[in-house]
Amino acid sequence: MIDIKSLFDFEIEELLINNGFQKFRAKQVLSWLQKGTTDFSLMTNLPKPLIEFLDANCYISTATIERKQVSKIDGTVKYLFSFADLQCVESVVMNYHHGYSICISTQVGCKMGCTFCATGKSGYSRNLTASEMLAQIESAQKDLGVRISNIVLMGMGEPLDNYDNVIRFLKLVSSEHSLNIGMRHISLSTCGVVPRIYELADLKLQLTLSVSLHAPDDESRSKTMPINNAYNISELLKACRYYIKKTNRRISFEYALIDSVNDSDEYARKLALLLKGMLCHVNLIPVNSVKGANYVKSKIERQKSFVDILSEYGINATVRRTLGSDIDASCGQLKRKYKEGGI
Ligand code: SAH
Ligand code: SF4
User: Fold this and answer.
1) Does domain 64-327 have CATH number 3.20.20.70?
2) Are the beta carbons of 205 and 170 closer than 8 angstroms?
3) Catalytic-residue membership of 191
4) Which of 98, 238, 283, 312 is deepest in the core (most CB within 10 A)?
C-alpha cells in the first residue's frame, strides 16, 4: 500500500497519470488531503474508478489520541498518539506569546541511549514516516481548534537517524499543498550525527539546528551520550561550523544542567572556550529527572552562575523556561508511565 500523505504533489500526479487518470485529479486529491480528509470515499468530486483505485492501493496516515494531559500551570498539552500499527509516540503543544508550537516525535523510541533521557531508556522500535510526523500536527490542530505556527523536532527519536523521512517531512510541511509552515519556524534537534549534519548543511534549508551538547569535554560527554564515542566534540563542532558557513544560520546548543554533574563554574568556562567566536546561542535546560537515572536539576544559583560565565565570554545563553512541569512534558516520560500502567 502507498502512503499517499508522504508523497509530493508531483509524485501523486505521476501515480495518477501512470494509472490512467487525468493529471488535474491530483490537485483535487491534494486539496482533500490538505483539508484532513481521512477516507477516500468522502472525496466527492473524484470519479468512482479513481476512488476505487485509491482505496485499493493507498492509505492515509492518521495519529489517534490515546492519552491527553493538560497542564494546570501553563496550558501546555501533551498527547500520546498511536498509528495504524498501534505504536505510540508523544507530542507536546505549547502556547508562547507568538503562537502555538508543537514538539513532535520522529521515531518510536531511539537508538542513541543518552543516560538522562526517558526515550533513550525505552529502546528503539521504528522510524516514523513523513506522513506520521504530519499527522501529529494535524491531529493536535484539530483537537485544539488552533493553527500551529512553529514546529520543533525534539520529541522522541533522533531526527538525523531517520534522515530521508525527516527531510521529506520538512519539504512537505513547508509546502503550500500541506501545512505551509516556513522553514524559519522549524527547529531540528540532534545529538550529533555528524555525517548527516554535513548533508543537511548542503541542503541550505533555513531551519534552526539545535545541537544537544550537554558536556564540554569528551570524557564527560561520552559518559552520558554514547554517540560521542562515534563522533567526538571536535568532529561535531567542525560540522557545526560547516553548517553555519553554508546556511548563515545561528546554531542553538542544548545543555541540560545536572546538579553536580556538569554545572560547575569550571564546566561553564570550558564550554565558553569551546564555543567562543561561534555564531550560536546556548539553551540551558535544568534537567528533568527521569525514573532509573539519578539526575537532579541544578540549583538556581548554579544556573545563574553558568549563564553569567558564558556571558562574560560573550556567549549568548538563556535558561529555558520549563513548560508543563506538572505533566511530565519532557518527551518519553508519558509513554513510559503508560506502558508501566501508571496512568
Ligand atoms: N534526539 C534529539 C532530539 C530529541 S531529544 C536530541 O537528542 O537532540 C530533545 C532534547 O531533550 C535534547 O536536547 C535532549 O538532550 C533533551 N533531553 C532529553 N532528556 C532530557 C532530560 N531528562 N532533561 C532535559 N533535557 C533532556
Ligand atoms: Fe535519543 Fe535524543 Fe533521547 Fe539521546 S536525548 S536518547 S538522542 S531522543
Assistant:
1) yes
2) yes
3) no
4) 283
